[in-house]
């Protein structure tokens, strides 16, 4: 965790450092407040959240009068934390209320890191002593099932797959059935994410969901978003949220961007918490999203 934190802070703390430097100016004039806004917008915090944060900071700085570096740091930390939402439930639910495996569906646009995230999550669950089964319902991308199976072998999870270009819902059905029959604790279903038409996506994901829910309730629908795609990611998020009820967000590639503000923007957009973050391509590069650690990494 310490290693992950260090990696996160290397790419992220430009934002917090920049804000602190600006706040420490002797005269906090209009231009400075605008620069503070620009810094937040550049980090993809979004317009509404930026306005809210700056208004609150201005008011508190005004009330405070004196502004020692320590005071400003505390202020900024508190306000950023409030924005990130320190009290949201970020547990990834994998425990079925019934005597059936917990079921997690992983959705998102191709290339965002869906398959990788499914593999990494399997690793975390296996390390936790759970029997995990993977369902390769991304039958659209030719290599996706192979990639998932490789992850399965690597982390110690069986993979259920279907014929290439086969019906994703039927693979999901088989995976959940196999999971129940073999006494798996959790079934993770990787889905396809081509966004060429919304109706196509809607039909496909909707069908996967319906078929799975015939067996058992879905415990989580995790939406995978690539942090480096910024506002574009928000547009994608909206489309997916219309198709399925998202219960949590996984923000990937946070290691490769200083635009960590997207955490705030996407949570507001969907009203759903970021639960996990991807911090690299390796098997251990998935971490729970911790608001305090995140904000500390921002401020450095
Ligand atoms: P999918 O099409 O959504 O299933 O995407 P993949 O899982 O195949 O991932 C696409 C690419 O992103 C691969 O090269 C992954 O190794 C890479 N990737 C996934 N997650 C992360 C992450 O958190 N950080 C970095 N740097 N790369 C990632």
TrEMBL record:
It is found in: Cell membrane; Cytoplasm. Its main location: membrane. Part of the signal recognition particle protein translocation system, which is composed of SRP and FtsY. The lineage of its organism: Bacteria, Bacillati, Actinomycetota, Actinomycetes, Kitasatosporales. Its EC number is 3.6.5.4. It is a peripheral membrane protein. GTP binds at residues 108-115, 190-194, 252-255. Residues 273-286 form the SRP54-type proteins GTP-binding domain. Belongs to the GTP-binding SRP family. FtsY subfamily. It catalyses: GTP + H2O = GDP + phosphate + H(+). It comes from the Bacteria. Involved in targeting and insertion of nascent membrane proteins into the cytoplasmic membrane. Acts as a receptor for the complex formed by the signal recognition particle (SRP) and the ribosome-nascent chain (RNC). Coiled coil: none annotated. It is an enzyme of class 3 (hydrolase). This is Signal recognition particle receptor FtsY. Signal peptide: none annotated. Keywords: Cell membrane, Cytoplasm, GTP-binding, Hydrolase, Membrane, Nucleotide-binding, Receptor. The gene is ftsY.
